[in-house]
Amino acid sequence: MKSNSCKGSNNQYLEEYLSESAARVDAQRIKKEFGHDLTAYLCRTCSYWHLTAVSKTRLCMFCTDSSLFLKDIYATRSDAEAVAVKMAKEKRIKLYPYKCPHSSGWHLSHRSKG
How far is CA 87 from CA 27, 43, 54, 91, 104, in A? Predict the structure, then answer.
């Protein structure tokens, strides 16, 4: 059932689940049907379970951005490129993937490296 209080980033009301297992079953259905990786979480606002996208990023412990925040690192170039395409569509920001000089992963930059 749809929530009366909780909205997602798209300003749409979230689905509410009574249990974690019910949320996980729906997440598996959505993955099979649409290919989206979702995970269940217990909401502090309504005390129901909701689904959220699984992040494919982690923080690089060696690289920082211009504000000195740790940079996101992506496992593959294609993961980084997918995020760059999403950012171009959603926020009109052009980003370029580049290999992390300190570990086996990929970062995004506002500057073209090639």
Answer: 24, 27, 17, 5, 23
